[in-house]
Fold this sequence. Notes:
heterotrimer, A: 288 residues, Uridine Diphospho-n-acetylenolpyruvylglucosamine Reductase, domain 2, 5-stranded antiparallel beta sheet, 4-stranded antiparallel beta sheet, 14 strands, 35% helix, C: DNA polymerase, domain 1, globular
Amino acid sequence: MIPSSFEYSAPSTLDEALKMLNELGDEAKILAGGHSLIPMMKLRFAEPEHLVDINNIPGLSYVKEEGEYLIIGAMTREVELEESDIVAAKFPIFLDAAKLIADPQVRNWGTIGGNLAHGDVANDHPAVMIALDAEVEITGQNESRWVSINEFFMGFYTTAVQEGEILTAIRIPNASGKNGNSYHKNERKVGDYATAGVAVNITLDDSGTCTAVGIGLTNVNPTPLKAERSEQALIGTKLDDAAIANAAQYASEDCKPSDDLRGSVDYKRRIVKTLTKRMIIKAMERAN
Amino acid sequence: MAGHAGQKHKIRVVSPDIGGGFGGKVPIYPGYVIAIAVSFLTGVPIKWVEDRSENLQADSFARDYHIKAEIAATKEGKIQATRFKVLADHGYTDASANPSKFPTGLFSIGTGSYDYDTAYMEADAVYTNKPPGGVAYRCSFRVTEAVHAIETVVDTLALKIGKDPAQLRFENFIKKDQFPWKSPTGWEYDSGDYKAGLEKAMKAIDYDGLREEQVEKRKKGELMGIGISTFTEIVGAGPSKDFDILGIKMFDSAEIRVHPTGKAIARFGTKSQGQGHETTYAQIIAEELGIPAENIQVEEGDTDTAPYGLGTYASRSTPTAGAAAAMAARKLRDKAKKIAAYLLEVSEDDLEWEPGKFSVKGAPEKSKTIQELVFAAYTNHPQGMEAGFEATHYYDPPNLTFPNGAYICVVDIDSDTFEINVRRFVAIDDCGNIINPMIVQGQVHGGLTQGIAPAMYEELLYDDDGNILNGTLMDYLVPTAVESPSWETGHTITPSPHHPIGAKGVGESPTVGAPPAIANAICDALKPYGITHMNIPITPFKIFKTLQEKGLLDTDLKI
Amino acid sequence: MEIKIKLNGTEMTADVEPRTLLVHLIREKFSSTGTHIGCDTSSCGACTILIDGKSAKSCTILAVQVNGKEISTVEGLLTAEGLHPIQEGFKENHALHCGFCTPGMMMRAVELLEKNPNPSEDEIRWGISGNLCRCTGYNNIVSAIKYASAKIRGAELPSTEPKFV
């Protein structure tokens, strides 16, 4: 299978890339890791006239702590997150997710920015970023802006990234207090997209009361879902069994999964309920 | 093409190393024919390349057998009779190289490893708008389906009467001294020791310990299951009285030529697709002739040089071409004996053979090595004897061979998500005499992974309009190294009495034996729900659906 | 587009269309047919090669993307000193039957051992989870990688005799 013909450019600066994207308008697609885009092009689901490859632009791949944030460059590969000491210490949720994203070869190329900008509800980072209350840096020719992850996913394969813009970084606020986070997805076999996935990020005060929480769900809704009712069910509690059961129940009720090869609506709701409970407990254990 | 024009002798087919076959390469696909036709029309070489999606959409499929299996037994569990009714989907045409006389292949092996005398088998085949069907994927003509039916229905019986499935099997096995055993459907099983195999498997996996663990787990509401399969295969097609394909008898062939240097080339009518024929055949000849295996070049896959043969499928290469290798080598050994008698100036009766040389009885210092005898065949052979040292044999097996095995598998099922983890899998195979243990084990490992596949993962799905729903390997779920457990294998050895070297085929045993072991383990795990049977593939979602339909989700299971 | 790469240490140039996939460049323009195409959807790993030392699925990367990079394929494993330890591991442990998945499997294993010289069985199984094998059932591939690991580390080589219960 071979993609249909297209023009290819590989600019070496961000300015050059942005200029090119502005000139080309909707004829252009950005090529990052390419492991979602190229398969779609081979199957002719996507037939862009021009690919702008941003792999040669220096300075877009990094994991660093700055002020109160962890900042991840958009072109950071999955494998670089897996191997980052900062991530291992504070954000094991990324290791949970990375192990279950496709396979090692794909993770050598796939980028964090691409995983978000593709806008695919089946990808794993959207739910993780929702749980972590991340913000996404979108850079245009004249300005760059930070957009809350909760306002990023607009619909089916559409995000807040507008024509002529590039997603350049993701920042995650450091938690105050005891923090723990976790992710798991149910998959039919290793490397599969999620039947359902749940990301949880929890902050506790010294008394063990939950002061902040984020819960994101993968592939059980038209867009990546922030499970707000579940979050509210946990805030201010000591994460007792009843609170966790409520949160799990709400998550399973508030998502809108579809019937497909991975399972029925009821089955997916059950997975969401189970994983929500398990991930809250795991995050809580990590926080302590 | 030329064949149709009466010019078959001008066609040369050369098959170099090819990827695995497993049955999918048996049929003739339209692409082959079109490529040849286009080449004729254009006058240039044409290469036909099929991509994976085309392969999944349009290549032949196997095993679309919908079976209703019934079993009759005494209250104590002594099997009295079985009745299998099959609806078989064969797509738009039958793609199988099936023996002409057996429209449903060897489905009639379905009475399994058990001693009873009443059986009924019925199959309706239907044509549908699917791709060509009926390929016996890594199975000798529908044995997988037959074994799945008998091995799962035996377990259903055990679950229904509350008897341990191992015990039920011990009480029903055909006994070692009952061989050769005439099955109710007319086959003559050559040899077997089913009891020994199952005992060995139970010991290796600590069956009693697992059952104790299961009792404890069930008290806590945890789902753990142990599944057994004690299957009998039927391979090595086949005896010419029973087996032909469009009239051509299902023999196979070997041709051995030993050069004056003592180094040999051996050619066969079969074709390895990764089964290691180069090693196995060389070892058979080495064993028979005493020429080191590394001095034997095995060659297959060129119609200009290979002896006529029916090919590699249905675990038939060792039972047929392997036997032909031994028989051709024995012809050469007989010739060597004549030359030795001439050179040593004794009668043939005064010679004795040990691998690699003939020596005079009682005077071992007077001997000739096989290398010397081969050289003499070209330089100093008896008057009247043809020069050269080569032989051909076309082997027509007197019977099929009946490899068998005892497989035990342990699964743990998550009681919330129903994810299934195959914790352990022990496979004890009996394929008679083993020529190369590493190759046999390799075949078993691979076949087991291909057995877990239809049991838990692989299924071609279509919508109501006949469109394929999972036409890529993203959705057609081939197991990886993570889904495959670390296989534990072993063997018992009950030689085939009629095969020249006592060997039986083995390539398909694991694919045939593994699915019911896994299905039985899963049903055993779900026993607290009252489930006694599920159709494969059994996925977590299917377990959910089954329990949901029965209104059993989240029932308190602690027993 | 004119591109220049280093293939197993040799400078190569080619004129390719932007849509040419790396695997087609390697197989068809450079005639290195050890790299296989098994699925086309980056599911099977038969096309695995190394790009600047990192394993990648060459069916899902454009040839133009690797301009200026170093590509290693299975053809580069064999050296004047003989088989690469991973090749020796596969040979000694009967870790290939038909051989279709083997080049990709070995190239993946090369990087796996580079990063984790002494992997556990579980790490090996997850490490090759992007490579499908239809023949071996994976047991002997795991053994082959353990063998290569020992060989590379200079540790005692594990027995290659088949183990039976």
